[in-house]
């Protein structure tokens, strides 16, 4: 991860989730770090 911005965290999360088969994706647990500050943005 280049930095700990919300935008970078979103991109890394999307890439990681895309590697998991769709039928295996269920939940994602967040912590309270600043990289999750944009959790409500599409």
Structural features:
single chain; mainly alpha
Q: What is the compact description of this entry?
A:
By secondary structure, this protein is an all-alpha fold. The chain contains one helix and no strands.
Mean pLDDT, rounded to whole units?
79
Task: Count up the domains.
Answer: 1
Shape: globular
Radius of gyration: 11 Å
**Structural class by helix and strand composition:** mainly alpha
What would your notes on this structure say?
The structure is a single chain. The protein has about 40 residues and is mostly helical. It has one helix at about 5-20. It has one domain (about 5-35). Helices cover about 30% and strands about 0% of the residues. The longest helix is centred in the first third of the chain and has 13 residues, at about 5-20. The protein is globular, with a radius of gyration of 11 Å.
């Amino acid at each position: 991860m280049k930095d700990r911005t919300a935008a970078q965290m979103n991109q890394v999360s999307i890439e990681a989730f895309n590697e998991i088969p769709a039928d295996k994706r269920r939940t994602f647990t967040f912590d309270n770090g600043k990289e999750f500050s944009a959790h409500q943005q599409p």
